[in-house]
Specification:
The protein is mainly beta. It has helices at about 1-25, 30-35, 225-235; strands at about 40-45, 55-60, 65-70, 80-85, 90-95, 105-110, 115-120, 125-130, 135-140, 145-150, 155, 160-165, 170-180, 180, 185, 190-195, 200-205, 210-215, 220-225, 240-250, 255-260, 265-270. It has a single domain (about 40-270), classed as 6 Propeller (Neuraminidase). The protein has a four-stranded antiparallel beta sheet with strand order 1-22-21-20. A four-stranded antiparallel beta sheet has the order 2-3-4-5, with no helix packed on it. A hairpin with a 4-residue loop joins strand 11 (about 155) and strand 12. The longest helix has 22 residues, at about 1-25.
Length: about 270
């Protein structure tokens, strides 16, 4: 008799437990690993020439530089390296490469030299950082060249999920960093900027800039710049993708723009 009572009690508890489990809210596994969004504020906007097909954006010695590409279907575009005047939107041309042979991509300054990638030519042009005179051209093996930034080594993107670290003295590969978002390889890494120990990268054909941990390649945060993209499209329906991140370490200010955008935007966020 006692055994029958124990079995009956066990059965009742089992069904109570099952009912409780069925009525509980399922655990969202993705919510646990979802990359957090980084809150930001738009501080200001500045004029930007709408013929500029932006490939690189950076500050050097307090001056905003920009590199541009030149798609065949956009005859007004040129492959340039320019100095931008934020206040007026006017620019001074420092370098122009032959658009019938080359498509200009990202740039970076290092040790009094200016480096400029090309899209599919496997060539990086090297200029004197003061006179902009061509000093050399070096070849690399990546299928494409997209963007450059730098810490102690030069860091190059090529449109894949892999960032290549390069010794700027001899342009030899030092190592690679595979970038993942929630464990999934993140392709289309585009314009790069190194800020306070992290790499920030535009993701081509999206409205996102991602924050990358340089120790392991994990994406640890995202900026959703959809509001800026919408503003740019409203001002110029012919705009192309978001592209361009510049950090002015002297003022701790960050600027973003895109290809054919009417504006460069100053944004603020915790970095």
């Amino acid at each position: 008799m006692l055994r029958s009572i124990i079995i009956a009690v066990f059965i009742v508890l089992f069904f109570i437990d099952c009912n409780n489990n069925n009525s509980s809210t399922p655990v969202d596994i993705n919510a646990v690993t979802k990359t957090p969004l980084i809150n930001y504020a738009v501080i200001n906007s500045f004029p930007h020439d709408t013929t500029l097909f932006t490939e690189g954006l950076l500050f050097h010695n307090g001056q905003l530089f920009e590199s541009t590409g030149s798609p065949e279907e956009l005859p007004r575009t040129k492959s340039l390296i320019i100095k931008n005047d934020l206040a007026t939107g006017k620019f001074d041309k420092e370098v122009e490469i032959n658009k019938t042979k080359y498509f200009g991509e990202g740039i970076f300054f290092f040790n009094n030299k200016l480096y400029e990638l090309t899209y599919k030519n496997h060539v990086c042009f090297v200029y004197d950082a003061n006179t902009f005179k061509l000093l050399d051209s070096v070849h690399y093996t990546n299928n494409e060249g997209w963007s450059l930034t730098c810490n102690k080594q030069m860091i190059r993107s090529d449109g894949t999920d892999t960032l290549t670290y390069i010794n700027p003295q001899n342009f030899k590969k030092v190592k690679t960093l595979e970038v993942t978002d929630n464990g999934t390889p993140l392709n289309n890494l585009n314009e790069l900027e190194y800020i306070n120990g992290f790499i920030y990268a535009d993701v081509w054909k999206t409205n996102f800039i991602v924050k990358i941990d340089t120790t392991n390649g994990n994406v640890v945060g995202k900026l959703d710049l959809t509001s800026l993209v919408n503003d740019a499209q409203n001002k110029n329906p012919k705009v192309d993708v978001l592209n361009g991140i510049a950090y002015d370490s002297a003022t701790d200010k960050i600027y973003v723009t895109g290809k054919l955008y009417s504006n460069i935007y100053e944004i603020s966020f915790s970095h």
